[in-house]
Amino acid sequence: MPTSNTLQDHNEEVSFFDMVYQVVRLIPEGRVTSYGAIGSYLGAARSARMVGWAMNNAHHLDPPVPAHRVVNRAGQLTGRAHFNPPERMQELLEAEGVNVTEHQIDHFDTVFWDPSVELSL
DNA sequence: CGATTGACGTACG
DNA sequence: TCGTACGCCAATC
User: What positions of strand C are covered by protein, i.e. any atom < 7 Å from a CB?
Assistant: First the structure.
């Protein structure tokens, strides 16, 4: 029996946070996805904010989560400020073959990786 | 303990 | 069609 005796007895799957981490780790190199896409894949399209918030926790996770492959719906590296250093996010993306200009991913529609599509749910 | 924020996105006016 | 408001769940103040 789980340690937590929360009100949610319907915990059939892991927490939303954990699911986010799992999906982010499934992102292949050279591909990126958006917070909303992950949230939508998890069945909560409106919880895009939560996905980003989960990334904050991702920094102390093991193994580390490739948060640099997660950007907003516009393809902008909005979360770069939370990296160390912030420019590290762009460097990591370029190292995987993803070109970034002015914190904006080039050909975002091409490198975009939609979990609900690639995972063929 | 209660209110606000937070790496966004969708819905509504 | 464009602009504004709300929602998601958890953590922080």
Answer: 7-11
Q: In this complex, which residue's CA is closest to the C1' atom of nucleotide B5?
A: A53
Q: Is the minimum distance from the CB of A108 to strand C below 7 Å?
A: no
- Contact (CB, 8 A) for A64 and A47: no
Distance, Å, A68 CA → C11 C1': 22
- The per-residue pLDDT for range A25-62, each reduced to its tens digit, is 999 999 999 999 999 999 888 899 999 999 998 988 88
Instruction: State the alpha helices, DSSP H only, in A1-121.
Output: 16-25, 35-41, 48-58, 88-95, 108-111, 115-118
CA A81 to chain centre: 15
Prediction pTM value: 0.86
Q: Which domains does chain A have, with CATH numbers?
A: 16-118 (1.10.10.10)
Return d(Cα A38, Cα A17) in angstroms, integer.
Answer: 11
Question: A115: cis peptide before it, omega within 30°?
Answer: no
Determine the Cα–Cα distance for residues A28 and A89; give it in Å rounded to an integer: 16
